[in-house]
Design brief:
By secondary structure, this protein is an alpha+beta fold. It has two domains: about 210 residues, 3-Layer(bba) Sandwich (FAD/NAD(P)-binding domain); about 130 residues, D-Amino Acid Oxidase, Chain A, domain 2 (2-Layer Sandwich), CATH 3.30.9. Strands 5, 6, 14, 15, 16, 17, 18 and 19 form an eight-stranded mixed beta sheet that branches. A five-stranded parallel beta sheet has the order 8-2-1-12-21. Strands 22-20-13-23 form a four-stranded antiparallel beta sheet, covered by helices on one side. It is about 30% helix and about 20% strand.
Protein backbone atom coordinates (compact mmCIF):
# COMPACT_ATOMS: atom_id res chain seq x y z
CA UNK A 1 0.00 0.00 0.00
CA UNK A 2 1.25 3.49 -0.83
CA UNK A 3 2.08 5.46 2.30
CA UNK A 4 0.72 9.00 2.85
CA UNK A 5 3.08 11.77 1.78
CA UNK A 6 4.39 14.45 4.11
CA UNK A 7 2.71 17.86 4.11
CA UNK A 8 5.46 19.52 2.03
CA UNK A 9 5.96 18.84 -1.68
CA UNK A 10 8.43 16.00 -2.11
CA UNK A 11 11.08 15.75 -4.77
CA UNK A 12 13.41 13.01 -5.97
CA UNK A 13 16.40 14.00 -8.09
CA UNK A 14 17.76 11.32 -10.42
CA UNK A 15 21.30 11.82 -11.69
CA UNK A 16 21.58 10.47 -15.23
CA UNK A 17 19.03 10.21 -18.01
CA UNK A 18 20.11 6.82 -19.33
CA UNK A 19 18.15 3.60 -18.95
CA UNK A 20 18.86 3.19 -15.22
CA UNK A 21 17.95 6.81 -14.51
CA UNK A 22 14.72 6.85 -16.48
CA UNK A 23 13.59 3.55 -14.96
CA UNK A 24 14.36 4.93 -11.49
CA UNK A 25 12.21 7.95 -12.36
CA UNK A 26 9.38 5.63 -13.42
CA UNK A 27 9.72 3.75 -10.13
CA UNK A 28 9.39 6.93 -8.06
CA UNK A 29 6.91 8.88 -10.19
CA UNK A 30 3.83 7.88 -8.16
CA UNK A 31 5.49 8.30 -4.77
CA UNK A 32 6.75 11.90 -4.81
CA UNK A 33 5.34 15.15 -6.12
CA UNK A 34 8.20 15.63 -8.58
CA UNK A 35 10.98 13.54 -10.11
CA UNK A 36 13.69 15.68 -11.66
CA UNK A 37 16.20 13.98 -13.96
CA UNK A 38 19.52 15.79 -14.37
CA UNK A 39 21.81 14.89 -17.27
CA UNK A 40 25.02 16.39 -18.58
CA UNK A 41 24.12 15.60 -22.20
CA UNK A 42 21.34 16.89 -24.39
CA UNK A 43 19.27 13.73 -24.62
CA UNK A 44 18.50 12.89 -28.26
CA UNK A 45 14.93 12.63 -29.56
CA UNK A 46 15.96 9.92 -31.98
CA UNK A 47 17.82 6.61 -31.52
CA UNK A 48 21.43 7.69 -31.81
CA UNK A 49 24.60 7.34 -29.77
CA UNK A 50 25.61 9.95 -27.20
CA UNK A 51 28.94 10.66 -25.47
CA UNK A 52 28.08 9.09 -22.11
CA UNK A 53 26.78 5.88 -23.66
CA UNK A 54 29.98 4.74 -25.40
CA UNK A 55 28.92 1.08 -25.34
CA UNK A 56 25.63 1.85 -27.09
CA UNK A 57 26.96 0.65 -30.44
CA UNK A 58 27.47 -2.87 -29.12
CA UNK A 59 25.01 -5.75 -28.98
CA UNK A 60 22.53 -5.67 -26.10
CA UNK A 61 20.04 -8.23 -24.88
CA UNK A 62 17.15 -7.60 -22.54
CA UNK A 63 16.55 -10.92 -20.79
CA UNK A 64 13.06 -12.02 -19.77
CA UNK A 65 13.51 -11.10 -16.10
CA UNK A 66 14.54 -7.57 -17.00
CA UNK A 67 11.78 -7.23 -19.59
CA UNK A 68 9.19 -8.42 -17.05
CA UNK A 69 10.44 -5.81 -14.57
CA UNK A 70 10.38 -3.07 -17.18
CA UNK A 71 6.84 -4.02 -18.10
CA UNK A 72 5.74 -3.74 -14.47
CA UNK A 73 7.24 -0.26 -14.28
CA UNK A 74 5.89 0.91 -17.64
CA UNK A 75 3.01 -1.32 -18.81
CA UNK A 76 3.04 -1.75 -22.56
CA UNK A 77 6.65 -0.64 -23.05
CA UNK A 78 7.86 -4.00 -24.37
CA UNK A 79 5.11 -4.12 -26.98
CA UNK A 80 6.06 -0.58 -27.96
CA UNK A 81 9.65 -1.76 -28.49
CA UNK A 82 8.37 -4.65 -30.61
CA UNK A 83 6.14 -2.33 -32.63
CA UNK A 84 9.23 -0.23 -33.30
CA UNK A 85 11.10 -3.21 -34.78
CA UNK A 86 12.64 -5.01 -31.79
CA UNK A 87 12.49 -8.80 -31.84
CA UNK A 88 11.11 -11.15 -29.19
CA UNK A 89 13.34 -14.23 -29.41
CA UNK A 90 12.25 -17.47 -27.70
CA UNK A 91 14.73 -19.14 -25.36
CA UNK A 92 16.21 -21.72 -25.66
CA UNK A 93 14.72 -22.56 -29.05
CA UNK A 94 15.78 -19.27 -30.62
CA UNK A 95 19.43 -19.59 -29.61
CA UNK A 96 22.31 -21.50 -31.15
CA UNK A 97 24.80 -21.48 -28.33
CA UNK A 98 28.19 -23.15 -28.09
CA UNK A 99 29.35 -23.42 -24.48
CA UNK A 100 32.67 -24.83 -23.27
CA UNK A 101 30.79 -28.11 -22.71
CA UNK A 102 29.41 -28.20 -26.27
CA UNK A 103 26.28 -27.23 -28.21
CA UNK A 104 23.00 -26.74 -26.40
CA UNK A 105 20.06 -28.54 -27.95
CA UNK A 106 17.08 -26.55 -29.24
CA UNK A 107 14.51 -29.34 -28.99
CA UNK A 108 13.08 -28.18 -25.65
CA UNK A 109 9.89 -26.15 -25.35
CA UNK A 110 10.52 -22.38 -25.23
CA UNK A 111 10.24 -21.30 -21.59
CA UNK A 112 11.77 -17.81 -21.66
CA UNK A 113 12.59 -15.04 -24.09
CA UNK A 114 14.88 -12.13 -24.77
CA UNK A 115 14.35 -8.87 -26.60
CA UNK A 116 16.82 -7.94 -29.32
CA UNK A 117 17.14 -4.28 -30.34
CA UNK A 118 19.74 -1.58 -30.57
CA UNK A 119 20.52 -0.02 -27.19
CA UNK A 120 19.66 3.46 -28.45
CA UNK A 121 16.22 2.21 -29.52
CA UNK A 122 15.55 0.73 -26.07
CA UNK A 123 16.60 3.95 -24.39
CA UNK A 124 14.47 6.18 -26.62
CA UNK A 125 11.26 4.20 -26.10
CA UNK A 126 11.73 4.13 -22.33
CA UNK A 127 12.74 7.79 -22.13
CA UNK A 128 9.70 8.96 -24.08
CA UNK A 129 7.38 6.92 -21.89
CA UNK A 130 8.94 8.18 -18.66
CA UNK A 131 9.07 11.85 -19.67
CA UNK A 132 5.36 11.66 -20.51
CA UNK A 133 4.58 10.90 -16.84
CA UNK A 134 3.02 14.00 -15.23
CA UNK A 135 5.39 14.14 -12.25
CA UNK A 136 8.63 13.66 -14.22
CA UNK A 137 10.72 16.37 -15.86
CA UNK A 138 14.28 16.58 -17.14
CA UNK A 139 17.02 19.21 -17.22
CA UNK A 140 19.82 18.67 -19.73
CA UNK A 141 23.24 20.27 -19.87
CA UNK A 142 23.59 20.15 -16.08
CA UNK A 143 26.79 18.82 -14.51
CA UNK A 144 26.59 17.47 -10.97
CA UNK A 145 29.64 18.45 -8.92
CA UNK A 146 28.71 17.26 -5.43
CA UNK A 147 26.12 16.42 -2.81
CA UNK A 148 24.33 18.73 -0.40
CA UNK A 149 24.20 17.56 3.19
CA UNK A 150 26.36 15.66 5.63
CA UNK A 151 27.11 12.13 6.82
CA UNK A 152 23.60 11.84 8.27
CA UNK A 153 21.46 13.02 5.35
CA UNK A 154 21.75 14.14 1.74
CA UNK A 155 19.47 17.03 0.90
CA UNK A 156 20.17 17.55 -2.78
CA UNK A 157 23.04 18.19 -5.18
CA UNK A 158 25.41 20.95 -6.24
CA UNK A 159 25.53 21.49 -9.99
CA UNK A 160 26.84 23.69 -12.74
CA UNK A 161 23.68 24.59 -14.59
CA UNK A 162 22.93 25.13 -18.25
CA UNK A 163 24.73 28.48 -18.08
CA UNK A 164 27.77 26.91 -16.33
CA UNK A 165 26.84 28.74 -13.13
CA UNK A 166 26.88 27.06 -9.68
CA UNK A 167 23.45 26.11 -8.38
CA UNK A 168 21.94 23.98 -5.63
CA UNK A 169 19.07 21.59 -6.31
CA UNK A 170 17.19 20.47 -3.21
CA UNK A 171 15.70 16.98 -2.91
CA UNK A 172 14.23 14.52 -0.42
CA UNK A 173 16.00 11.72 -2.30
CA UNK A 174 18.99 11.67 -4.65
CA UNK A 175 19.42 8.62 -6.90
CA UNK A 176 22.84 8.24 -8.55
CA UNK A 177 22.35 6.54 -11.92
CA UNK A 178 25.37 8.07 -13.64
CA UNK A 179 26.84 4.74 -14.72
CA UNK A 180 30.43 3.51 -14.72
CA UNK A 181 31.77 7.03 -14.38
CA UNK A 182 29.94 7.67 -11.10
CA UNK A 183 31.72 10.05 -8.71
CA UNK A 184 29.65 8.94 -5.72
CA UNK A 185 32.65 7.78 -3.61
CA UNK A 186 34.23 11.23 -3.96
CA UNK A 187 30.95 13.02 -3.30
CA UNK A 188 30.35 10.98 -0.15
CA UNK A 189 33.87 11.66 1.14
CA UNK A 190 33.35 15.40 0.64
CA UNK A 191 30.38 15.45 3.04
CA UNK A 192 31.96 13.13 5.61
CA UNK A 193 30.19 10.02 4.37
CA UNK A 194 31.48 6.45 4.53
CA UNK A 195 34.21 4.89 2.48
CA UNK A 196 32.55 2.21 0.36
CA UNK A 197 34.25 -1.14 -0.19
CA UNK A 198 34.93 -1.91 -3.85
CA UNK A 199 35.95 -5.04 -5.77
CA UNK A 200 37.13 -5.16 -9.38
CA UNK A 201 37.60 -8.15 -11.68
CA UNK A 202 38.95 -7.16 -15.09
CA UNK A 203 39.56 -9.74 -17.80
CA UNK A 204 40.60 -6.97 -20.20
CA UNK A 205 37.66 -7.56 -22.54
CA UNK A 206 37.57 -5.43 -25.68
CA UNK A 207 34.61 -5.27 -28.05
CA UNK A 208 34.33 -4.72 -31.78
CA UNK A 209 30.80 -4.45 -33.18
CA UNK A 210 29.03 -3.58 -36.39
CA UNK A 211 25.68 -3.90 -38.12
CA UNK A 212 25.08 -6.21 -41.06
CA UNK A 213 22.21 -6.44 -43.50
CA UNK A 214 20.90 -9.95 -43.01
CA UNK A 215 20.81 -12.33 -45.99
CA UNK A 216 17.46 -12.39 -47.77
CA UNK A 217 14.98 -14.37 -45.69
CA UNK A 218 17.20 -14.40 -42.58
CA UNK A 219 16.07 -11.19 -40.94
CA UNK A 220 13.00 -12.04 -38.83
CA UNK A 221 13.48 -15.69 -37.86
CA UNK A 222 17.23 -15.90 -37.48
CA UNK A 223 18.36 -17.26 -34.09
CA UNK A 224 20.80 -15.65 -31.72
CA UNK A 225 24.17 -17.25 -32.41
CA UNK A 226 26.55 -17.15 -29.50
CA UNK A 227 29.99 -18.75 -29.55
CA UNK A 228 31.23 -18.65 -25.97
CA UNK A 229 34.80 -18.63 -24.78
CA UNK A 230 36.28 -21.14 -22.34
CA UNK A 231 37.64 -19.23 -19.32
CA UNK A 232 39.61 -22.27 -18.18
CA UNK A 233 41.09 -23.09 -21.56
CA UNK A 234 44.39 -21.37 -20.76
CA UNK A 235 44.15 -18.95 -23.68
CA UNK A 236 42.54 -15.53 -24.19
CA UNK A 237 38.80 -15.91 -24.58
CA UNK A 238 37.20 -15.00 -27.91
CA UNK A 239 33.42 -14.55 -28.16
CA UNK A 240 31.36 -14.05 -31.31
CA UNK A 241 27.63 -13.35 -31.42
CA UNK A 242 24.85 -12.36 -33.79
CA UNK A 243 21.56 -10.87 -32.61
CA UNK A 244 18.76 -9.99 -35.01
CA UNK A 245 17.57 -6.50 -34.04
CA UNK A 246 14.76 -5.92 -36.54
CA UNK A 247 14.68 -3.98 -39.77
CA UNK A 248 16.57 -6.72 -41.58
CA UNK A 249 19.66 -6.09 -39.46
CA UNK A 250 22.05 -8.30 -37.54
CA UNK A 251 24.00 -6.76 -34.68
CA UNK A 252 27.35 -8.51 -34.54
CA UNK A 253 29.65 -8.22 -31.53
CA UNK A 254 33.07 -9.81 -31.21
CA UNK A 255 35.04 -9.68 -27.99
CA UNK A 256 38.33 -10.92 -26.66
CA UNK A 257 40.02 -10.92 -23.28
CA UNK A 258 43.47 -9.48 -22.53
CA UNK A 259 45.95 -10.75 -25.10
CA UNK A 260 43.27 -11.66 -27.64
CA UNK A 261 41.39 -8.42 -28.29
CA UNK A 262 39.68 -7.58 -31.61
CA UNK A 263 40.52 -4.38 -33.47
CA UNK A 264 38.63 -1.85 -35.60
CA UNK A 265 40.46 -2.94 -38.75
CA UNK A 266 38.03 -3.88 -41.51
CA UNK A 267 39.99 -6.82 -42.88
CA UNK A 268 40.36 -8.44 -39.45
CA UNK A 269 36.75 -8.37 -38.29
CA UNK A 270 35.48 -11.57 -39.86
CA UNK A 271 38.86 -13.26 -39.43
CA UNK A 272 38.53 -12.71 -35.68
CA UNK A 273 35.06 -14.31 -35.75
CA UNK A 274 36.57 -17.32 -37.48
CA UNK A 275 39.15 -17.67 -34.70
CA UNK A 276 36.48 -18.20 -32.04
CA UNK A 277 35.97 -21.73 -30.75
CA UNK A 278 33.69 -22.44 -33.74
CA UNK A 279 33.52 -20.55 -37.08
CA UNK A 280 29.69 -20.48 -37.30
CA UNK A 281 29.41 -16.71 -36.84
CA UNK A 282 32.05 -16.11 -39.50
CA UNK A 283 30.21 -18.43 -41.89
CA UNK A 284 27.01 -16.45 -41.39
CA UNK A 285 28.75 -13.09 -41.82
CA UNK A 286 30.26 -14.23 -45.11
CA UNK A 287 26.68 -14.30 -46.47
CA UNK A 288 25.68 -10.89 -45.04
CA UNK A 289 26.51 -7.30 -45.93
CA UNK A 290 28.20 -4.93 -43.45
CA UNK A 291 26.26 -1.65 -43.21
CA UNK A 292 28.12 0.26 -40.49
CA UNK A 293 31.59 1.10 -39.37
CA UNK A 294 33.23 -1.00 -36.65
CA UNK A 295 32.79 0.38 -33.15
CA UNK A 296 35.34 -0.58 -30.49
CA UNK A 297 34.87 -0.41 -26.72
CA UNK A 298 37.17 -1.55 -23.92
CA UNK A 299 35.84 -0.25 -20.61
CA UNK A 300 34.42 -3.59 -19.48
CA UNK A 301 35.80 -4.37 -16.01
CA UNK A 302 33.41 -5.84 -13.48
CA UNK A 303 33.24 -3.46 -10.51
CA UNK A 304 31.06 -3.81 -7.45
CA UNK A 305 30.68 -1.09 -4.83
CA UNK A 306 29.04 -2.36 -1.67
CA UNK A 307 26.73 0.57 -0.95
CA UNK A 308 24.26 -1.89 0.56
CA UNK A 309 26.77 -2.64 3.36
CA UNK A 310 27.82 0.96 4.05
CA UNK A 311 26.21 3.45 6.45
CA UNK A 312 25.02 5.77 3.71
CA UNK A 313 23.45 9.11 4.53
CA UNK A 314 19.66 9.09 4.46
CA UNK A 315 18.22 10.34 1.19
CA UNK A 316 20.85 8.79 -1.09
CA UNK A 317 20.61 5.68 -3.30
CA UNK A 318 22.90 4.30 -6.03
CA UNK A 319 21.48 2.27 -8.91
CA UNK A 320 22.71 0.41 -11.99
CA UNK A 321 26.30 0.57 -13.25
CA UNK A 322 27.09 3.29 -10.70
CA UNK A 323 26.87 0.55 -8.05
CA UNK A 324 27.60 -2.67 -9.97
CA UNK A 325 29.06 -2.55 -13.47
CA UNK A 326 29.44 -5.78 -15.41
CA UNK A 327 31.34 -7.18 -18.36
CA UNK A 328 28.71 -6.64 -21.11
CA UNK A 329 29.36 -10.04 -22.71
CA UNK A 330 26.84 -11.67 -20.36
CA UNK A 331 24.10 -9.21 -21.28
CA UNK A 332 22.82 -8.55 -17.75
CA UNK A 333 23.33 -4.81 -17.35
CA UNK A 334 19.92 -3.64 -18.60
CA UNK A 335 18.07 -6.41 -16.79
CA UNK A 336 19.84 -5.75 -13.48
CA UNK A 337 18.99 -2.05 -13.79
CA UNK A 338 15.33 -2.79 -14.50
CA UNK A 339 15.09 -5.18 -11.56
CA UNK A 340 16.87 -2.64 -9.35
CA UNK A 341 14.38 0.06 -10.35
CA UNK A 342 11.50 -2.31 -9.61
CA UNK A 343 13.02 -2.94 -6.17
CA UNK A 344 13.15 0.82 -5.65
CA UNK A 345 9.42 1.06 -6.37
CA UNK A 346 8.65 -1.88 -4.10
CA UNK A 347 10.28 -0.10 -1.17
CA UNK A 348 8.50 3.17 -2.05
CA UNK A 349 5.18 1.33 -1.82
CA UNK A 350 5.76 0.56 1.87
CA UNK A 351 8.15 3.25 3.13
CA UNK A 352 7.74 7.01 2.52
CA UNK A 353 10.49 8.27 0.21
CA UNK A 354 11.56 11.10 2.59
CA UNK A 355 11.88 8.64 5.46
CA UNK A 356 15.34 8.17 6.96
CA UNK A 357 14.83 4.42 6.48
CA UNK A 358 14.02 4.56 2.78
CA UNK A 359 17.51 4.81 1.29
CA UNK A 360 19.05 1.91 3.15
CA UNK A 361 16.06 -0.35 2.60
CA UNK A 362 16.07 0.46 -1.10
CA UNK A 363 19.84 -0.02 -1.44
CA UNK A 364 19.65 -3.51 0.04
CA UNK A 365 16.80 -4.51 -2.26
CA UNK A 366 18.55 -3.05 -5.31
CA UNK A 367 21.70 -5.04 -4.49
CA UNK A 368 20.01 -8.45 -4.77
CA UNK A 369 19.61 -8.74 -8.56
CA UNK A 370 22.91 -6.93 -9.07
CA UNK A 371 24.66 -9.48 -6.84
CA UNK A 372 23.27 -12.37 -8.90
CA UNK A 373 24.45 -10.76 -12.14
CA UNK A 374 27.84 -10.13 -10.52
CA UNK A 375 28.24 -13.80 -9.63
CA UNK A 376 27.39 -14.87 -13.17
CA UNK A 377 30.01 -12.52 -14.61
CA UNK A 378 32.97 -12.83 -12.24
CA UNK A 379 32.39 -16.57 -11.89
CA UNK A 380 33.75 -16.72 -15.43
CA UNK A 381 36.03 -13.69 -15.76
CA UNK A 382 38.22 -14.57 -12.77
CA UNK A 383 39.50 -17.63 -14.61
CA UNK A 384 40.78 -15.98 -17.79
CA UNK A 385 44.57 -15.76 -18.07
CA UNK A 386 45.87 -12.27 -17.23
CA UNK A 387 42.64 -11.34 -15.46
CA UNK A 388 43.25 -8.55 -12.94
CA UNK A 389 41.58 -8.23 -9.57
CA UNK A 390 40.14 -10.62 -7.00
CA UNK A 391 41.42 -14.13 -7.75
CA UNK A 392 39.29 -17.27 -7.37
CA UNK A 393 39.46 -18.89 -3.95
CA UNK A 394 38.59 -22.48 -3.10
CA UNK A 395 34.86 -21.67 -2.85
CA UNK A 396 34.97 -19.99 -6.26
CA UNK A 397 36.72 -22.99 -7.76
CA UNK A 398 34.19 -25.44 -6.33
CA UNK A 399 31.35 -23.25 -7.56
CA UNK A 400 32.90 -23.02 -11.02
CA UNK A 401 33.22 -26.80 -11.19
CA UNK A 402 29.56 -27.18 -10.26
CA UNK A 403 28.47 -24.65 -12.89
CA UNK A 404 30.63 -26.44 -15.47
CA UNK A 405 28.91 -29.69 -14.53
CA UNK A 406 25.51 -28.03 -14.86
CA UNK A 407 26.42 -26.63 -18.27
CA UNK A 408 27.60 -30.05 -19.43
CA UNK A 409 24.39 -31.64 -18.15
CA UNK A 410 22.31 -28.93 -19.82
CA UNK A 411 23.41 -30.18 -23.22
CA UNK A 412 20.85 -32.96 -22.68
CA UNK A 413 18.65 -32.17 -19.65
CA UNK A 414 15.43 -30.17 -19.81
CA UNK A 415 15.45 -29.82 -16.01
CA UNK A 416 18.89 -28.21 -15.93
CA UNK A 417 18.26 -26.12 -19.05
CA UNK A 418 15.15 -24.67 -17.39
CA UNK A 419 16.95 -23.86 -14.13
CA UNK A 420 20.01 -22.39 -15.84
CA UNK A 421 17.76 -20.30 -18.06
CA UNK A 422 15.72 -19.12 -15.07
CA UNK A 423 18.93 -17.75 -13.57
CA UNK A 424 20.51 -16.51 -16.81
CA UNK A 425 17.38 -14.55 -17.76
CA UNK A 426 17.20 -13.19 -14.17
CA UNK A 427 13.71 -14.52 -13.55
CA UNK A 428 14.99 -16.44 -10.53
CA UNK A 429 17.91 -16.02 -8.17
CA UNK A 430 21.06 -18.16 -8.17
CA UNK A 431 19.71 -20.43 -5.41
CA UNK A 432 17.52 -22.05 -8.06
CA UNK A 433 20.62 -24.01 -9.19
CA UNK A 434 20.83 -25.81 -5.85
CA UNK A 435 17.33 -27.29 -5.77
CA UNK A 436 17.24 -31.04 -5.22
CA UNK A 437 16.00 -31.91 -8.73
CA UNK A 438 18.84 -29.88 -10.26
CA UNK A 439 21.46 -31.47 -8.00
CA UNK A 440 20.19 -34.94 -8.91
CA UNK A 441 20.22 -34.15 -12.62
CA UNK A 442 23.74 -32.75 -12.40
CA UNK A 443 24.95 -35.85 -10.58
CA UNK A 444 23.40 -38.03 -13.30
CA UNK A 445 24.81 -35.97 -16.17
CA UNK A 446 23.66 -36.06 -19.81
CA UNK A 447 22.30 -39.32 -21.17
CA UNK A 448 23.11 -38.65 -24.82
CA UNK A 449 26.44 -37.69 -26.37
CA UNK A 450 27.14 -34.00 -26.82
CA UNK A 451 26.18 -32.72 -30.29
CA UNK A 452 29.08 -32.67 -32.72
CA UNK A 453 27.64 -29.87 -34.89
CA UNK A 454 25.48 -26.79 -34.35
CA UNK A 455 21.74 -27.58 -34.08
CA UNK A 456 20.58 -25.70 -37.16
CA UNK A 457 17.23 -25.99 -38.91
CA UNK A 458 17.03 -26.87 -42.63
CA UNK A 459 16.19 -23.21 -43.33
CA UNK A 460 19.28 -21.99 -41.44
CA UNK A 461 21.50 -24.55 -43.15
CA UNK A 462 20.19 -23.41 -46.53
CA UNK A 463 21.22 -19.82 -45.75
CA UNK A 464 24.72 -20.95 -44.81
CA UNK A 465 25.05 -22.99 -48.01
CA UNK A 466 24.66 -19.90 -50.18
CA UNK A 467 27.76 -18.58 -51.89
CA UNK A 468 29.70 -16.06 -49.79
CA UNK A 469 29.25 -12.41 -50.78
CA UNK A 470 32.01 -10.52 -52.49
CA UNK A 471 33.27 -7.73 -50.27
CA UNK A 472 33.50 -4.21 -51.77
CA UNK A 473 36.71 -2.35 -51.14
CA UNK A 474 35.03 0.82 -49.79
CA UNK A 475 33.91 1.17 -46.19
CA UNK A 476 30.23 1.09 -45.38
Amino acid sequence: MTQPRPSHATRAVVLGGGLSGTLAAAALASHVDEVLILDHDVLPDEPKARPRLPHGDHAHMLWAGGADAMEQLLPGVIQECLDGGARRIPVPTGMVSYAPAGWFRRSWEPTHYLIGALRQEFDLVVRRRVLALPTVRVRCGVKVIGLLGNAARVGGVRVRNEDHEPETVRADLVVDATGRGSKAPTWLAEIGGPRVREITVDAGVRYASRLYKAPAGADENWPVIHIQADPRGGEPGRVASIISVGGGRWHVSLSGTRGGEPTAQEEQFEDFAREARHPLVAEALARAEPISDIAVYGRTANRRRFYDRARLPAGFVVLGDAATSLNPVYGHGMSASALGALALRTVAESTPVPSSRFGMQAQRRIARPAADAWLLAVGQDRFYPNSIGAKPNIVDRIGARYVARLTYTATDSAVVVKSLTDVMTMRKRAGELFRLRVLVAAARGPRRPVLDAPPLTPFELAILRRAPMERPTAKH
